[in-house]
Amino acid sequence: MSVKFLHTADWQLGMKALQAGEKAKEVRAKRFETGARVVKLAKSENVDFVLLAGDLFENHDVDGVVVRKTVAMLNSFSPIPVFVLPGNHDPLVAGGIWDGQSWQQVGDHVTLMREPAELQVQDGTALYPAPLKQKQSTLDPTDWIPARAAADDRIRIGVAHGALDVLPERGNFPIAATRPIEAGLDYLALGDWHGFVQHGKAAYSGTMEQTSFSEKDPGNVAIVGISGPGADPVLTKHPVGALKWTEYEPTISDATDIDSLRKAVNDAGPIPGQLLRIIPRLDQLASLDLLEDLRSLRQELREEAFFVDWPVETLDAPPGAPVSLPEGLLAEVDEDLGDVLEGKIPEGPGREAAAASEEVVREARSLLRRLVAEEQQ
Amino acid sequence: MIIERISVKNWRGYRELHAFQFEDGINLLAGRNEAGKSTLFEVLTRVLFDRHNSKTEEIRAIQPVGSSLGPEAQVEFQVDGKRYRAAKTFLQNPQSALYSDRGGTWELDHEGDAADAQLREILRGEATARTAARPEHRGLAQALWYLQSDGPVPEKSWSDGVKEGLQGLVELAARSPTETAVMERASASYREYWTPTGRVASRSDLGRLQADLPELEERLAALRDKAEAVESYRADLEEIQSLQQEKSGELEKAKAELAKLSTQVEEADKLEQERDAKEQAKNEAAQEAEGIQRDLAEIDERQGKIKKQETIGEELEGSLADATAQAKAESALSDLHARRWKEELEPTLKRLEEELRALRALERVRKLEKDQKRLELHLERVSGVETKLEEQRTLRAELVAPDEKEWRRFATASENQNVLEAKVAASAVRVGFEWTGKTRKVKTQPPVAASEDHEYVVTQPTEFRVEGVGKVRVRSGASALDGLVTQRDAALHEVREFLTRFNVPDADGMAALREERRELDRTIATLEGNLEETEGTEPDAKEELARVKRGVEEETRVAGTLPAEMRQQGGQWIRDQIADKEREKEGLVRDIEEEQEAEKAATKRHIDLVEARGAASTKLAEHKAAIKSHQERISKILESYGTMEQLRKLASSAEKQVETATADLEAFLSDYEEKVVTPKRLHEQAQSRVRDLESQLGDLRTQTAEIRGHIEEAADQGSYSQLADTEIEVDRRKKRIAVLKRRADGAMLLNSLLLGREKQRSAVLSGPIQELVNRWLRLLTEENYDSLEIDHDLRPSGVHMARYDAKLPLTSLSHGAREQVVVLLRLGIAVLVSKEERNLVVIDDRLVNADPVRMKRLCLVLDEAAKDCQIVIATCNDTPYAGLQAHVVRVPVDGNVVSAEMSN
Predict the structure, then answer these.
(1) Coil, strand, or helix at residue B351?
(2) Of the candidates B11, B38, B56, B20, the residue with the CA atom closest to the CA atom of residue B145
(3) Residue B342 carries which DSSP code?
């Protein structure tokens, strides 16, 4: 007997999406659209069941409407069975979502795996879920999974949410990477890591829609095929995510740097689907023309991309920008500000600048140079 | 440049030629209001700086009212050691000429526009296009001449002429266009964020963001509180669930325990029933025995009572007999006493009282007879007086005499008559005859009697017939005499009437009659008095006499019972008899009373005894009834038992049965506690525990439902997404605020540095002027203000108050103080630019608001400035300037030239 199922996790519906600024609402809505695509994929792939390995919801406090929409979406999987594992974002706690009225409307084909106990999915296939009952722990939730009995010829699939101990800097709900071998599992469907990663018979499908700027290879689900007990699982990664979040910190010395930045953004994918965080580092001697080009690029991207987080102050003229200041009062003030930036205390009225913070002094100097430059134009 | 002479003609009030000389030093242009002082200054400025062919409104205004003649004027002045004369005529045949003094002769240098231009050149003025010359066209004079029509300082900056004049001494470096533009834009950038007082401008983006942020943060805090509240609910729910589990476990245990105890309780119930049965048997036996004992006891008791009552009954019978006998004896005694006083003593008393009544009546008769006598005598006396009185009244009635009223009238009439007689006599004409020779007979008609003196008193026209002589007619006195005579006659008539009425001849007769009547009146009054007095002693004497007589009759009848010899006895005997009888009566009364008392006492004792007997009889009956009742009861009781003996036997048997039942029950109850009481108690406790736990679980379920409801409610409110959106918004705004704040601070710093640098430059540049002006300012204000703040354009902006180390803007000073400050500044500029050549300073009546003390100090300043400058001061009052060494020019008087033409 063989089995084919869809493995996904970390949908985190109702997430705040703080990094998306004013687009946060739209980002939240996109996740439901992606969820709908997953449903479509599951049906088109004709899977036997769907495993949702934790963090279906961002938080137990998500709005009621989010829960209702999620329930409706899970119900749309019908008749494909769906097995939902409580993760560290939505653990089994008193008064949580799983106890709410809205969740009770979920269809019979959806099973919330509440207990660490064997679940017979279909003939010849058993699930070993490790539901989480709290947000943090240093204990391995898969510890309870019994080893395969000698006569057990079923396909045994573990479902857990935590950090494989081979992953860097992860301590919450550590999971032994050797669990599949120790427990005689044919597959360990994992959630918590948002990128697609496979380690032997354990795999993270990753989040179906990217959730922040720092994720690698998110936006996928896995279609898993296991031909029989003991066989290696065959994973197929299916991208389903609509948005791509990327951050850039380019050093801009000249126009080619701007071009490179533009190209990088274009190469990353369709710009309307991109969330961009760009913090350019301007060369001290960057000219005003260069600044102007950079401003243009920023304007372009703000018009085209889904969301751009590019602080406008990064486009202020650097203090070292070459400006011809006429002799007299203006040059004297510029010199005073320059002295302060070098750590000196100017004489006379310029002494006042020494009490100001460095960024205020830079700002004053930038303003002066900008005004002079504009006047000279 | 200094001026020497101004001449003017056809100019406003100066219709005739006027020429005014000025000296070097201080010139006081003194004159009344509208004397023409300011006009002279106008002449100065128009001649020196206006185009001769100008036809502006201001130029037209200098023409005298109603005149069409062209105003003309000349100004002689010195510049750079050279003397010039500028002569202009405006409007009518306009002309302009500029002369120079060469060796004492005025030589024409330029005419027309050239003259105008040369003048401007010499004086560093500026050409005007179509307007009249304004202060900024006057070159250095803009600063040095402070005319009535000028503002205190120029709005923007001094003219180039002033700056040029100051060049080399005070270097005013103007800002470059770039500096000006950048500084303006820096200032604009500053104003984008800040108010002039250094606060964030509320209408700026920064201000608005800062203003809105607290509210947003508040909202965020509220949403976070809500989230925390939900978290708290979940925590509570967890606790409740944990408790629920614990309580459920306890409930299970409690139910198991209860089940176990239920079996024991069933057994216990059975034993309880058996106990009840044995108890009942025992009780019934005890009840029966008790009943028998009770009956037995009752019988014994009753029998005892019967004995007692029989004893009491015997005693009562004895008492009854005694009481009856005594009552009879007392009744007899009472009758005895009654007979004694009724039949013996009372009749005697009655007889005695009759005797006493008769004796008293006799005594009263005696008394009444005395009264009768007295009254009769009294009535006799009264009658006598009445008779006398009647006689006197009759006499008076018969007497015809005047009463007092009539007498008074008579007396008055008599007196009147006498008076009138006297008056008449006094008024009458007296005619007397003195015969020489023989005495003649005189007859009068009407007749008049002659007096003893042979005088005739004539009171009316009287004819005297003198024998042998003839007639002499004498008219009497005036009408007054006639009047008197008439009155006298009237009085006489009245008197005679009285005399006639009372039939007396004269007044004496009247008097006698009066006296007689008076005597009778006195006698009658005396008798009336006596009668009243007499009657008063016995008022109602007649009625009293009648009553006494009736009394005598009545009492005599009562006393008639006495024997005749007794009735003859006198009063003393009667009184003695009465006394004896009284004493006897007293004795009898005492005896009767005693007997009555005795009777009463005996009767009372009798009654008491009868009552006592009655009570004893009743009591005896009661006792007998009680005995009967006891006997009947005893019989009734014995009906159930037979005889007493049988009853006693039955009682003994019942006792034994009770003992047996009790022993049986006690044996049964020896392990009752263990088998029944304890299991039941434990069962009840277990039941209570189960109920308690079920109730607790019910409460927990209710709480759980409630909390779940709150959590669902919070979820339905969409707080989570609101929280997220609010966090995003707050974060966004804070970042924006940080950016704007940095920009605002940068703009503020830049603006401050630029202004600071400029101020420093201004201070350096304007140092010399400031030094001089500050010294004067300290002198003028007694060190109250120690420096004048001057901007980079050499315009005053404020003063520094030394005491408070604070700057006061110029607008804070009074108008007078501001004028004084401006004068000081202009004088300061004048002194500085006059180092090499004296310059004219004009002060057109600008110090009118200075008080005497200030004025004195201003004079010191003017004196000092006059060392370097020529000063012309216009004033309406030259007294405040008395301390100055000044050349006084009276306007217009001192300029009044009767017949002179403008100099050529």
Answers:
(1) helix
(2) B38
(3) I
Question: How many residues are recorded in chain B?
Answer: 904
> Which DSSP helix (H) or strand (E) runs through B30?
strand B26-30
Residue labelled with tokens 């005014």:
B20
Helix residue ranges per DSSP H, B538-570: 541-558, 564-567
Task: Residue B240: list chain A partners with CB under 8 A.
Answer: 94
A17 contacts in B (CB within 8 Å)? 724
Nearest CA in chain A to B229: A61
* B169 close to B832: Cβ distance less than 8 angstroms: yes
Distance (Å, rounded) from C-alpha B232 to C-alpha B248?
A: 24
Q: Find the helix or strand (DSSP H, E) in which B870 lies.
A: strand B869-875
pTM reported for the whole predicted model: 0.54
Q: Using CA coordinates, name the residue in chain A closest to B749.
A: A364
Kindly compute the dihedral angle of the four CA atoms of residues B859, B861, B866, B870, in this order, to the nearest 10 degrees: -80
Q: Helix B346-398 vs helix B541-558: angle between axes, to the nearest 10 degrees?
A: 150
Q: Is A184 helix (H, G, I), strand (E, B) or coil?
A: coil
Bridge partners (DSSP) of residue A187 are: A157
Q: In which element (H, E) is residue B216 found? A: helix B205-339
In angstroms, how far is CA A310 from the centroid of its own chain? 18
Average pLDDT, integer, range B31-51: 90
Rounded to a whole number of angstroms, the distance from the CA of B191 to the nearest CA of chain A is 14
Burial (CB < 10 A; 0-12, 13-18, 19+), residue B785, is buried
The Cα–Cα gap between A80 and A76 comes to 9
Distance CA B529, CA B108 (A): 159
Tell how far CA B336 is from the center of its chain: 98
Distance, in Å, from the CA atom of B749 to the CA atom of A359, rounded to the nearest integer, reads 12
In chain A, residues with a C-beta closer than 8 Å to the C-beta of B746 are: 360-364, 366-367
pLDDT in tens, B367-391: 999 999 999 999 999 999 999 999 9
CA atoms within 13 A on the CB side of B178: 18
| Mean pLDDT computed over A130-140 | 94
Residue B436's Cβ-count burial label (10 Å; 0-12, 13-18, 19+) is exposed
For A187, the token pair is 């597959």
> How many whole angstroms separate alpha carbon B554 and alpha carbon B365?
9
Angle between helices B37-49 and B112-123 (to 10 degrees): 110
Q: Does B709 touch chain A (CB under 8 A)?
A: no
Contact between residue B860 and residue B779 where contact means Cβ atoms under 8 Å apart: yes
* Cβ-Cβ contacts under 8 Å, B723 against chain A: 16
H-run or E-run covering B844: strand B839-844
B495, B417 Cβ separation under 8 angstroms: yes
Q: Tell which residue, A160, A146, A173, A147, has the closest CA to residue A204.
A: A160
Closest CA to A238 of A105, A47, A18: A47
Closest CA to B192 of B694, B750, B627, B712: B750
What's the distance, CA B112 to chain centroid? 90
Q: Among A60, A360, A361, A362, which would you mutate to test the B interface (most chain B Cβ atoms within 10 Å of its Cβ)? A: A360
Q: Judge if the upstream peptide bond of residue A239 is cis by omega within 30 degrees of 0.
A: no
Whether A130 and A142 have beta carbons less than 8 Å apart is answered as: yes
A223: enclosing H helix or E strand: strand A220-226
Round to whole Å and give the CA distance between B752 and B746.
10
ipTM confidence: 0.89
Q: pLDDT tens digits, residue range B320-371?
A: 888 888 999 999 999 999 999 999 999 999 999 999 999 999 999 999 999 9
* Size of chain A, expressed as the number of residues it contains: 377
Rounded to whole angstroms, what are the CA distances from A359 to A249, A319, B183, B445?
20, 10, 21, 169
What confidence tier does A76 reach under pLDDT thresholds 50, 70, 90?
very high
Q: Is pLDDT of A322 > 70?
A: no
Instruction: Tell me the β-bridge partners of A163.
Output: A174
